[in-house]
């Protein structure tokens, strides 16, 4: 208690009670006198402390409690930093750092710094994090020095080019029945060319293939003029390309004097079937 008489007062000694977690504290400022008052509300008890030694004692108690809480928090943080990294045995360096393979160098460095700070007290964890980081950086460096060819990307770029688009626009897919019929016709011509290679060469079979080309193109497009133009152009192109391939790339199918003509005829049949079936 505090006893007031005249102009002097004698405060009592500091109360040794320590407030529990259910205590509510309120610091109220008294502006006229410039003094402070602390009200500590207990569950069944209320005590008022005026400025002076009592308030100074209580302030020291509060500071001591705050310091203890801070020390406990520091100890908990130290214990967490000494914990083992949970992904220490993960072989994939990207999964070990918790990042994707498309992560940038800044993201990789940020993940490394975060994990190093968190598990700084565990040497094996730090070594595992550093090893994963170094492996990713070296792989990135190697990929820059030796760029890989993305085949899917290249094929997509070729398909989207104007030349390929123009060529594809000249072809269309017919019915399955039509495709099979034309395929059987040219297969029969190919078998006859291989089985009966005459001294004059497969002249008859080649002539029949030209007629079959005119027929199939006219059957699809219903135009005699287009059938003649497309058929003649396809035949000339197929024979020239077949000759070039046999001379430069593909060896003759059969040996003998007529091996060159037979192989060229077979390549021509394949190209004529494509023209007869898909040319628009």
Order of helices and strands: EEEEEHHHHHHHHHH
SS content category: mainly alpha
Strands across the major sheet, in which order? 3-4-5
Report the sheet with the most strands, covering strand number, pairing sense and barrel closure. 3 strands, antiparallel
Rg calc:
46 Å
Quick take:
The protein is mainly alpha-helical and 280 residues long. Helices cover 61% and strands 9% of the residues.
Write out key terms for the chains shown.
two-stranded antiparallel sheet, 3-stranded antiparallel beta sheet, elongated, mainly alpha, 61% helix, 280 residues, single chain, 9% strand
Explained architecture:
The structure is a single chain. The chain is mainly α. It has helices spanning 53-81, 93-97, 105-118, 123-145, 151-159, 162-168, 176-195, 203-221, 224-248, 259-278; strands at 3-5, 8-10, 24-30, 35-41, 46-49. The protein has 10 helices and 5 strands; from the N terminus they run βββββαααααααααα. The strands form 2 sheets. The protein has a 3-stranded antiparallel beta sheet, with no helix packed on it. The chain has a two-stranded antiparallel ribbon with strand order 1-2. Helix 3 (105-118) runs antiparallel to helix 4 (123-145) and helix 7 packs antiparallel against helix 10 (259-278). Residues 1-60 and 62-70 have low confidence and may be disordered.
């Amino acid at each position: 208690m505090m006893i007031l008489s005249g102009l002097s007062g004698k405060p009592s000694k500091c109360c040794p009670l320590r407030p529990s977690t259910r205590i509510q504290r309120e610091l109220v400022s008294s502006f006229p006198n410039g003094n402070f008052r602390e009200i500590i509300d207990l569950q069944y008890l209320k005590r008022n402390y005026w400025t002076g030694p009592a308030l100074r004692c209580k302030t020291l108690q509060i500071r001591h409690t705050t310091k203890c809480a801070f020390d406990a928090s520091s100890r908990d943080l130290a214990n967490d930093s000494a914990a083992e990294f949970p992904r220490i045995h993960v072989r994939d360096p990207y999964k070990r750092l918790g990042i994707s393979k498309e992560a940038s160098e800044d993201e990789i460095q940020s993940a490394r710094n975060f994990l190093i700070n968190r598990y700084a007290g565990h040497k094996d964890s730090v070594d595992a994090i550093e090893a994963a980081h170094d492996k990713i950086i070296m792989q990135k460096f190697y990929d820059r020095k030796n760029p890989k060819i993305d085949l899917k990307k290249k094929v997509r770029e070729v398909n989207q080019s104007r030349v390929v688009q123009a060529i594809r626009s000249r072809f269309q897919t017919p019915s399955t029945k039509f495709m099979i019929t034309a395929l059987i016709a040219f297969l029969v011509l190919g078998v006859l060319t291989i089985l009966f290679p005459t001294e004059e060469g497969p002249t008859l079979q080649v002539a029949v293939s030209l007629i079959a080309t005119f027929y199939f193109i006219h059957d699809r497009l219903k135009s005699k003029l287009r059938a003649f133009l497309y058929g003649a152009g396809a035949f000339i192109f197929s024979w020239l390309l077949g000759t070039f391939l046999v001379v430069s790339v593909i060896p003759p199918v059969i040996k003998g004097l007529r091996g060159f003509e037979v192989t060229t005829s077979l390549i021509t049949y394949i190209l004529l079937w494509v023209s007869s079936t898909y040319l628009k």
